[in-house]
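pinging the channel bc i need a second pair of eyes. not urgent but kinda urgent?? the chain im working w is below, pasted from the shared doc
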Amino acid sequence: MMTAPRLPLFLMLAGLLGLAGCSTHQPVSLYQLDSGSPAQPAQTAGMAVLLGPVVVADYLQRETLLQRQNDGSLQGSTDGRWAGSLSSDINQLMLRQVAGQLDSQRVVLAPGPSGFTPDVQVLLTITRLDSGKSQPAILDAQWRLIDRRGQVRDNRIVHLQEEHAGTTASQVQAQGVLLQHLAQQLSVALKPLANQPPIAEAQPRKQAPAQAKPAAPEKPKMPMATPIRTDLEVFRF
């Protein structure tokens, strides 16, 4: 008669605890920013805008969804993370929102297609975008608007804040709302630059006419000797 091998008691307990841990493991939720419901731009010949470069703070360059604590520190969320690149989400949200606000199909992300000549370039920097369970969602940003002549037409620092319900999902939604508000304010600043006068083409520089050389003074002419006629006769002997 065969008997089953007996396992040590601690190995059996370890196996049971491992199974219990697997059964209670919760999958991590993935989140994306909510771009809202921007209007679909209809004008194919609308305002030409080059959006970017869009610079996002270094601490946001990760998939971890950060939580702002009461003491100002940041901790990674245990129940959620970003579904991909947060920078890419910000770029796409701003692109769709600005294009819808301006009703223009000619809003592109930097560096833009070859041959694209923008009416305005937007240099955008986002230095803060975060929230916490008991901390509101906060967005700090700055933009500069460069016209077609390369002149800075607007330079603005923006601070926005949005309350939420405390859950991770509500925090992500609040951060998306902040970016939508940023796009609305940016679009208002862009609209006055839509009717810029065209840049006059540089005309070829005309060469100054060559100055005529002064005529050399005429040399005085020597009078020619003329024979003098006399009535005297010469006699030869």
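so DSSP finds three helices and eight strands in the chain. and The beta strands are 29-31, 49-56, 64-68, 74-82, 107-109, 120-132, 135-147, 152-162. — does that match what u expected or am i reading it wrong
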